[in-house]
Amino acid sequence: MEYLGNTDLLKLPKTAFLCSQKCPAEVVLRSYDWAKQQREAGNCIVFGNHSIIEKDVFQILLRGNQSLILMLARGMKSQVEPELQETLKANRLLVISPFNQVVKRVTRETALIRNQKIIEISNQIVVG
């Protein structure tokens, strides 16, 4: 596993957030409401940040002050997006890759491995 950011976040109680690419509108709205509640409560959330809903929930949580863990389904990022740099500098973000740099693309297999790793490090799981 490769790490970028604050590895002390692994010691916190963590909630995994997973959501399918396809889900009904009511699930989308409940997921957004859930994200706002987690942001206000300051809970540490673990993401794959792959589906549109996961990305939206991640963006909602980035606006808060809580800790976030992003698990990649490919090798570690060579460049960090500007919106994540501030969160990394604030020690609120940990990016983890269970793959080496040779894995450049997300596949169904790497996504399944990523999701399993998310579940393994989390204390509870929320499915959107």
- Give the helix/strand class: alpha/beta
For the secondary structure, the number of strands is 6
Computed over alpha carbons, the radius of gyration is 14 Å
How many angstroms separate the termini?
Answer: 26 Å
Q: What is the count of helical runs? A: 4
Strand proportion, as a percent range, falls in 15-25%
Work out the helicity level: 25-40%
Annotation keywords:
single chain, 128 residues, alpha/beta, Rossmann fold, six-stranded mixed beta sheet
Give your account of this protein's structure.
- With 128 residues, the chain is α/β, with parallel strands linked by helices.
- It has a single domain, classed as Rossmann fold (3-Layer(aba) Sandwich), CATH 3.40.50.
- 39% of the residues lie in helices and 20% in strands.
- It contains 4 helices and 6 strands.
- The chain has helices at residues 25-41, 52-62, 82-89, 108-121, and strands at 2-5, 14-18, 44-47, 68-71, 93-97, 124-127.
- The chain has a 6-stranded mixed β-sheet with strand order 1-5-4-3-2-6.
- Helix 1 (25-41) runs parallel beside helix 2 (52-62).
- The longest helix has 17 residues, at 25-41.
- The chain is globular and about 40 Å long.
- The mean pLDDT is 90.
